[in-house]
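QA checklist item 7 of 12: single-chain prediction sanity check.
[x] sequence parsed
[x] length recorded as 184
[x] structure emitted
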Amino acid sequence: MVYTYPDQHDNREAKAFEKWVRVAHFCFVEMSERERQSIVAEIETTLAGQFPDIEVVDVDVQGGRGARLTVYVDRPGGVDLELCEAVTRALDDLRERYALEVSSPGLDRPLRTPAHFARASGERVYVKTADRLDGRAVFRGRLTGSDPTVVSLVLDEGDAVDIPFHTIAKAHVIFEFDDNGGHQ
């Protein structure tokens, strides 16, 4: 596909091109952290009365208009189909803006908050930082400690590393199967 810039002399083409750029930009721009937090707060407020034991673990928005919003929820005892269905119904207002999916966080549970990291202590985790730290941006290892400012790992290679919490771009638990197919 070839894109050409409109002729400066034809104002209609220039306006159409600018409109196309805005639409294309809208379709491919990722959700900002502020927008993500706003959606999480809206969901948590909506669910608080009906489902006080539910935690909104994460949200993911993909696409532009008619985007798909995936809400990852958890509760003590786990998530089942009936819970996902009930949460979907409770979030009916969001269904007017998004194609809504409600899911469990899965075996490779995302880690976004200090509380998520604290609960995953002792687990093997994947952490990607926004910027390089000691020459690398991807870390895999055993989570040995965390607080609101730092996450501590013993890397698979054996070295220990402290990762400042504010540098973490993405993180999740690495689910480990034992020899019998269960969790270690």
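[x] summary fact logged: The two ends are 50 Å apart (CA to CA).
[ ] second reviewer sign-off
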